[in-house]
Fold this protein.
Amino acid sequence: MATAYAQQITLSGTVKDSLHMPLEYANILAVPDSTSNKVRFSITDNFGFYRLNLESHVRYTITVSHLGHEPQYAKVFSITENIKQNFIMPIQTSQLDQVDIAYTPPISIKSDTISYRADSFVTGEERKLRDVLKKLPGIEVDRDGKVTANGKPVSKVLVENKTFFTGGTKLAINNLPADAIDRIELLDNYTDVAMLKNLQNSEILAMNIKLKENKKQFWFGDLEAGGGVKDRYVVHPTLFYYSPESTFNFIGDFNNTGHKSFTFRDYVDFEGGYSKLNKQSGSYYTLSNDDFSTYLKNEDYKAHTNQFGALNVRRALTPLTDLSAYVIVNNATSETQRNTTNAYLNNDTPFTEDRITTSQLQTFFTIGKITLDYDPSANEDLALSTVFKIANSTNTDYINTNSIYENNTINTESNLKQLFFNLDLRYTRKFSKNHTATLEMDYNFSNDKPLTDWRTDEDILEGLIPLETDTVYTILQTKKVNIHAANAVVKDYWVLNEKNHVYTTLGTQLAFSNLYSNNNQLLSNGTLNNFDSAGFGNDFTYQFIDNFIGMEYKFQLGIATLKPGIFYHFYFWNTQQQYDLATTRNTNLLLPQFNAEIKFSNGNALDVGYNLNAQFQTVEQLASRYVLSSFNSVFKGNEQLEHDLYHRISFRLSKYSTLKGLNYSIRAAYNKKEKQFKNVTQLDGIESVNTIILFDRPEDSWNIFGNISKRINRLRFKLTGYANYSNFYQLLNSEINKNTSKTVMVKTGLSTHFKTWPNLELEYSKNISLYRAIGLKTTYNTDVLSAALEYDFLKAFIFKIDYELDIFENKDEAVYNTFDNANATLFYQRENSPWGFEIGAHNIFNTTFRQGNSFSNYLISDSKTYIMPRMLLFKVQYKL
Amino acid sequence: MKINICGLVLLFCFSTVFVQNTVTEVTYKTILNFANLSEKMTDKYSKSEINTIVNSRSGYDAFNYTLLFNNYESVFWLNPIEVGMESEGGDNNQVTLYNREKDSKFYKNLKDKIWLENFMSSGDGLLLLTLKEEKVEWDITTETKKIGKQTCYKANLNTGKEVYGYSDMSPDISVWFTPEIAVPFGPKSFGNLPGLILEASIGPRTYYATSIKYNVDKTINKLTEGKPITREAYRASRAKF
């Protein structure tokens, strides 16, 4: 029995109009009677000729159509012979009216997007998602965890349609276990799928991982442990747990290497990543400046041991509520040493003081945050968060000071207990298309208890503190600062029409604070000599209320968006020291502001702003009786302080071009201070008495920052420039001097981005600072050269080495210092293996200290800060 | 006899003029189309994604697209609407969606073999992409339905190659075209079928025709604005960055 082959037959012919003129662009459609055969079509050429390949033994209905002509039909069927069929198309004579189609497409059930079934491509040896991706056609994964599909970069990773931790590709690629992956979908032209609201560009590719039914919960992580020369150890576990409802992330770090594995970036991620921070204006800035961030960035210790743990949890409590929380616990012991040469610039008798400060610090702190996000409907949004901080640190300092005025050793013991609590509520409600309102309320409580104990065998602060002669002098200070603060702001956003918006604000800010301080000399016989008679001892309360209303008007003028605004503040404050009468003061202030934004069509953006600012001081600057600030200075606040006042003009221009591989930005700001808070200092030798006043001679400053970067093939060039000028008054020993500071900095950099060759990063910067104080001129010149090399070779090795050279020069004082530091590591990990090994040398040249300089009111300091000695470490890593 | 010849010549002149210059205008609308979407559908999408979808749907309501075509030339764009500024507190979905698409235009000329696309890039301004002729292998099914008065056939594109600017990883593209309007055009860059596409779906986004006007007094203008560049050159520069 011979099987019939599906034979091809040809249907061809010409299509002409009623005047026998050939018709070009006529469509010939061949629809088979049975659904198992394909529909074919063709278009006539300029001779009116067409040709179609059809299946034999199949009946087709032929439709010939052409715009403006009557369609023609035919039926064909052939077994072996080719068919010739010509058509004549008369003109469509009926008048064609406008057709309105009352039609909405039905909601259709869409099959899954084009996806790769992981099982079809894997061999079973793959451990993680990156190993699976490498097996998929057209997909490339580089060392850093960047994925490209046919040249297009994948910028976001979703798991089961939700962002995976922070959404970056690296964490997902390196950690998702291969055996949990069912399908990999690549979502192109994201605007058509519209999963993400904030994407501006439709040329973005996202990857969505679908997990196997029984594998939707899994653990992954890294364990790192190592030891090194001279008793070094490091243990660093990182654990993740994923399930569609909750995610959990733990990072631990136990080491004495001085290096912190929990970085500032990890802290930002715990806080919800950069995008969440940007929504709460001011919060990123606050985060980068808070004491924990400062602690994270500091690496200058002589010795440092710490135990650290951080836990981050996210969970969907109900379909409408999301909970995220983190807690960080840290216990650290460290040793620091700093040798400083202070040049006191009194015009009478300038002199220098040599000071050596060695400290032993023991810190324990806990920070935690809980956030609840509630989205009941498309019109409402509620976010609640609470933050708490508990810290306890003990510090022992030995200060050795030598100068023509004093040769002394002071032993300082201090203990600081801190408690901080914050509750924040943010509610957004959309009333109508033209009106949205937000309510933001927060409450903060802080309680700081610094206790200090100074011990020395020489009489210090003569005439300022009433010391009784003794063999050993022990001075005690107890301080307690307690602040309750609350804020409430209601902002209404009105859309008058597309080009005009009005935003109104109504708010209040309250701060109730209390500062208690007590100073005593503990005599050898055990009795206390209280300093109250010399003006010490505070029991100060300060209550501050600011009620404000404001209005901003945003309107569009051509390509510019302008926003002038005005705020009016009603300030009331109340101060009371001990049993004195309470004083109530008040003032009102009008603060205007203006902002203009222009977005050019070629990608340039310009931003210009102006505002008038005013700030009030905190209770520490107002408490009107003396406190000891340090072994050589005493401070008294000023309860009459009002607000300062300064104008600020800012400017920003930026541009980036993908085609040219170029981007640049320029920022400039000008500040003019009408009234500012000034320290008033009475200096006697190295000892000073300080207070603070509101000074009304104008000061100004401007700064400009620019950077440009350009990519040419595998090289990237960077050029950064910075210039700053400021003038300011100095009130010292009843004299008023105007000082100026000028700084210029230029930095150039080059980096390579090769795939197989080693990559190099080079940077050189020059910084020149000029200070003019009390008629004296000082110039500092700093040159920094840094180089870093990374070489990935033999598929399993990564070698990294970095070097930094700092040259520091102060020509006027004939000071010339160099500081250099180098580190190198070699890492080995075979592909697909969970084991990794690293050997590293830190501070190869065994540099002892880092050089720095700083400038204050009447003092120029040159300091040497001691750093960790050379370390040789060997680490083993295991990937779960 | 004389009258007949004159009549015939007149008819001939009239017919060629009529046939060659006839421009048709089709208006399309667009929606975001998800299976069984309800605001509580959190097992498939997170709640913020559902909010996006719900809000986006209303953002697209005001969009109208125009397609102008004759026998061998077509141009497609989004009709301008007044959207104004982004509000700092409010709902900016329509503004965001409109700003993303307002500069996108598509032009085809089959006679001169010119395919152009206007596209607003972020950072480089308006680009004029020169494209090459594409061989598109539609899978035409025998499934039919009526859209308005026109009988339409369904055609699918199971992408396995890069086509129409979508990479080979794109979601399914399926369209309904009518051979009764015999031009190989449709919304955006879709076409290459023996009939006008009246409905096109790319994943959950659907474009559908709402009116057809014959013999409009409009001209089809070739795209001239923007920086000329080929799609390959643009993609290459982005990949490096």
Observations:
- Residues 349 and 710 of chain A are 52 Å apart (CA to CA).
- Confidence is low (pLDDT under 50) at residues 108-113, 190-202, 275-285 of chain A.
- DSSP finds eight helices and 48 strands in chain A.
- The radius of gyration of chain A is 37 Å.
